[in-house]
């Protein structure tokens, strides 16, 4: 741990939030002299204070401890690099178009790897009016179901959340190109 790097990061994040040392100190129930000491690199925050400091500054604890935010390359988010994440604990769905550290329920999530559909996991697509009507012949019990269906195009994502004990069917407006994805609660991400 480099106290100088940590201090510089705390200082820059505090200024970014337009907060004074006293405001942060009051929110943490410590002295503003302690914040000053950290920012000058004369000491580091105690482990017991890192959670609160992380919330106030809006930065992960590990980033505070490293003293560096390491910004992503400015690619502008490429839809060809679109990734899905699902929390194994609560089922929360997240996505991104570039590099990101995504966590849920206290655990870091890894991007899902999509597999091409197979005999058990496939979708049927019919055209109805100006829509694609998609049905997935799949069990929809509380322990094994399709959680979501997504249509990823070059400039947008349409995602429909599904729930157990309902039919695995969705409608998307017809658009050119793109890929269809669906997520099975037991077998992961599939694509067409």
UniProtKB/TrEMBL annotation:
<keyword id="KW-0238">DNA-binding</keyword>
<feature type="domain" description="HTH cro/C1-type">
    <location>
        <begin position="10"/>
        <end position="64"/>
    </location>
</feature>
<dbReference type="GO" id="GO:0003677">
    <property type="term" value="F:DNA binding"/>
</dbReference>
<dbReference type="InterPro" id="IPR036073">
    <property type="entry name" value="Desulfoferrodoxin_Fe-bd_dom_sf"/>
</dbReference>
<dbReference type="InterPro" id="IPR001387">
    <property type="entry name" value="Cro/C1-type_HTH"/>
</dbReference>
<dbReference type="Pfam" id="PF01381">
    <property type="entry name" value="HTH_3"/>
</dbReference>
<dbReference type="InterPro" id="IPR010982">
    <property type="entry name" value="Lambda_DNA-bd_dom_sf"/>
</dbReference>
<protein>
    <recommendedName>
        <fullName>HTH cro/C1-type domain-containing protein</fullName>
    </recommendedName>
</protein>
<dbReference type="GO" id="GO:0016491">
    <property type="term" value="F:oxidoreductase activity"/>
</dbReference>
<dbReference type="GO" id="GO:0005506">
    <property type="term" value="F:iron ion binding"/>
</dbReference>
